[in-house]
Structures are given as structure tokens and as C-alpha cells.
Amino acid sequence: MRRHIKHFTHRHEPKGTVHLHLKSGIGAMIGMASVGALTVFTGIPLLIAPFGATAVLIFGQPKSPLAQPANVIGGYLLAALIGGLAVFLFPGLWWVGAIAVGLTIAGMLMLRVTHPPAGAVPLVAFGSHMGGPMLFVIVGFGSALLIAIAVLHHLIPPRHQYPLRAPH
């Protein structure tokens, strides 16, 4: 039995340094303060949740394929498009939000722009007052802002290559 439990408790992440972990946390604070102001300005406080999950990936796991700019921005824009259309076509039908999340996941996988936090955007669309076009602009701007901050952040020593370079 102990042998099976080991698979659930083993940590696969490599050890890092305290300095690097603190740097990641500070970068996330700066990024979240920036998009937090965006949520206050737009009146969509629910938007802070998926952006917070994005901060974990882009500041804490910058080498992950899920943290790359194409995935972050592409995943968010696709989710906003699907979520916005779902709210427009089926306003007030909460269960359509579940369908929109499933369509978002399938679309991200097909387009190879998977970004797990973006899966929450259709739910944010159903829980907010913003329409599709405005949600699309806000989500696009917020994700691009986080990427810009992450690019600058990873230039500070100890440096990380972000975004990862495309193969030749």
C-alpha cells in the first residue's frame, strides 16, 4: 500500500533557491497589482482569479509550455470569444457556461494554445456584466500586460529565458 501512496505524494518539481522563489513571488505581486487595477476599472472582480492562476505559471514556471505567450494570450482570447458568444446567444442559462468551458478546452487543445486559467473565462463571462466585445478587449489587454511584465521580470538576475525560443 505504501508503494502506491508514494506516487501521490512524490513531488516532481525540482528544488529551487529561496532567492528565485522570492523573485517569482515579487513578479507575481507586480503583475497582479497591474491586472488588479484593470479589474477595478472594469468592474469585473472575478477576472482576477484566472489572472492569478496565470501569474503562477508565468512567474513560477516560465519554462512550461502552458506559460508561453502564445498559450496565455491565445488561450484567453479564445476563451473570451467562446464565453462572450455563449452569453450573447444564451443569456442567463448557467449550464451553458459549462458547455462553453468544454468548448474552450477543446478549442485550446486543437489550436495548441492550452492555458488552464483561461478555462475560467467563460464562467467569468456568465458572472459579469461585460458583453463579448468588451470582455475580449479586457482579457486580451490583461493577458498581454501580464506577458509584458513577465518578459521584463525574467530579465532580472537570476535570468530565465522567457519566452522560450522557437526551434529553427
Question: How is this structure best summarized?
Answer:
This protein has 7 helices and no strands.
As an assembly, this protein is: single chain
Q: What is the molecular shape?
A: globular
Secondary structure class reads mainly alpha
Strand runs, count: 0
What distance separates the N and C termini? 47 Å
**Count of helix runs:** 7
Q: Please state roughly what percent of the residues sit in beta strands, choosing from under 5%, 5-15%, 15-25%, 25-35%, 35-45% or over 45%.
A: under 5%
Order of SSEs: HHHHHHH
Helical residue percent? 55-70%
Average residue-wise pLDDT = 91
Query: Segments where pLDDT lies below 50 for 5+ residues?
Result: none
Radius of gyration: 17 Å
* Biggest beta sheet attributes: none
Summary keywords:
68% helix; globular; 168 residues; mainly alpha; 7 helices
Tell me what you see in this structure.
It is built from seven helices and no strands. By secondary structure, the chain is mainly α. Helix 2 packs antiparallel against helix 7 and helix 4 (69-89) runs parallel beside helix 6. The protein is globular, with a radius of gyration of 17 Å. The termini are far apart.
Layout of SSEs?
Layout: H1 2-9, H2 18-42, H3 48-60, H4 69-89, H5 94-111, H6 121-127, H7 132-153
Helix pairs in contact: 2-3, 2-7, 3-7, 4-5, 4-6, 4-7, 5-6
